[in-house]
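Progress against Task 2.4 (sequence-to-structure conversion) is shown through the following example record, which the project officer requested during the mid-term review.
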Amino acid sequence: MLESELLGQNDPLIGHTIAERYQVKSIVGEGGMGTVYRAVQEPIGREVAVKVLLPELINDSLKLKRFVNEARILSGLRHPHTVSLIDCGRLRDGRLFIVMDYVHGGTLRDLMDTGRLSQVAALKITRQILQSLAEAHAHGIIHRDLKPANVLLDEVQSEEFVVRVADFGIAKLDGDERLMGIAPTSKNATSGFGPQAHIATSPGIRLGTPAYIAPEQAFAKEIDARTDLYSVGIILFEMLTGHQPFKSDTERGLCLEHLHTAPKPINSVNTQLEIEKEIEQLLLSLMSKDRLSRPESAKTVIKTIDRVLVRIAPASGPTVPIPKVLPAVKRPQTLTIDTPIEFNKSPIPPWIWGLLMGITLGAGLGWLILRSA
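Structure tokens generated for the chain above:
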């Protein structure tokens, strides 16, 4: 029995109807902020995904704000490669919910766990991710948690995939002060999302998934659209090789790898890959430690990919045939961390401050002893 089925056995929402029109059928998955259900929208019979805030977060101001902002961001995005917002509101117990497209093809993570992809399939998937990002970036939205688990594969044309970028829960909108947050609520609340007072972003905190996070995001530097492009580079490298470019035994160590360790040219990982030289250079550019050295926009990267696809797959269409999974090249031992975590803003650990203070006090005490002698 699947883990989601086991979870659903004790879930009170299974079999019930949300907002008098969404009949909950099963659990799709659970994340740090909410549970995602498969539901049927009545009376039209459309399958939808319903994301419901976890009960323990109902009075967590920061998590409430992120949940609301995800709905607000999705409501302004229209690109077919981005998951669409259908509805949002509150349950009778006060929990928030978001209704979105139900995507049938699983995630890119599911596909990549079985091996690496061909160059053409990987480039086409990357291109569709970039199309979604191009629209988001044009609206000043930075995803901040782009990873294979947040890339959905929708089977909409016979045996072809259409990519849908999902989970804008920790996305950043330039001019974030214009976004409305949401206040903690009583269990008797039945209203929708607003109006509520603004809730400031928690100071000194950066969010992200260590395996895919850009160095400037991990260490509290200024971020922009090129921060997402770094994550795209990591994803493309992993699709082509079957493993991530950096490894460490700890979350912080992995972030330090992003900050200090230069990525290897992809063909040096395994010469049998035979990746186009232009794509090899593109990967190095996307994974540059300095965001100013990365491509200036998602559209710029799309142009590079298009030049290569015209050369190596001139007869192929825009959608992605079901990829043939290939054996991964030699995979180094790597820490697999696929959940967003919070990083303290200060890059200096507390123990270093304690050591410096001890040295300073010891030196001062020694000087006093010598002076008295």
